[in-house]
Design goal:
Layout: E1 2-4, E2 10-17, E3 23-28, H1 33-40, E4 42-50, E5 57-63, E6 68-76, E7 88-92, E8 95-100, E9 108-109, E10 113-117, E11 123-129, E12 138-147
Antiparallel strand pairs: 1-2, 2-3, 4-12, 5-11, 6-9, 6-10, 6-12, 7-8, 7-11
Length: about 150
């Protein structure tokens, strides 16, 4: 019997159990460690982007067909943005999930925004700049996902 992993390779279940009642599993091919870790626990990504273009990705994590708690914080570095406070958006694939407001001031950070998602398939959650950043502005974001079940 073969169970295929979308990240490449396959898992062979032989036997299916050994003399101690343990399931026997052997790995064939490579496994992407980041995707495997993401599938079973918590992972985060943080980044700072200077003067991003409209829609530029700031921080991204990949989620799978599971239920996740998603925590997001956004803010500005040493230079504040000169436009509206809704400069950040959270996207699930190409769909905008939420606008993430933050005060327009240097060295700021938003409250932690918490979401729960079950995407139904492998996809990315991405914090993006909703519009173009002004010269010298520094957009920062942290996105953390934790598998719930």
């Amino acid at each position: 019997m073969y169970a295929y992993y979308s990240g490449g390779g396959s898992t062979v279940i032989s036997g299916p159990v050994d003399g101690n009642g343990n399931l026997k599993v052997s790995q064939q091919g490579s496994v992407d460690n980041a995707r495997t870790g993401n599938r079973y626990g918590s992972i985060s990504n943080s980044a700072v982007v200077t003067a991003p273009t409209a829609g530029a990705a700031i921080a991204t994590v990949t989620v799978f067909d599971a239920y996740y708690e998603v925590d997001v914080t956004v803010g500005f570095g040493g230079t504040a943005e000169s436009t509206a406070i809704d400069n950040f958006i959270l996207q699930h694939g190409s769909t905008t999930v939420a606008t993430l407001p933050v005060a327009n001031a240097a060295n700021t950070q938003s409250q932690t925004y918490r979401f729960y998602v079950n995407p139904g398939s492998d996809t990315d959650l991405t914090v993006r700049a909703s519009g173009a950043g002004s010269a010298g502005s520094k957009y920062k974001a942290t996105i953390t996902i934790t598998r719930q079940i």
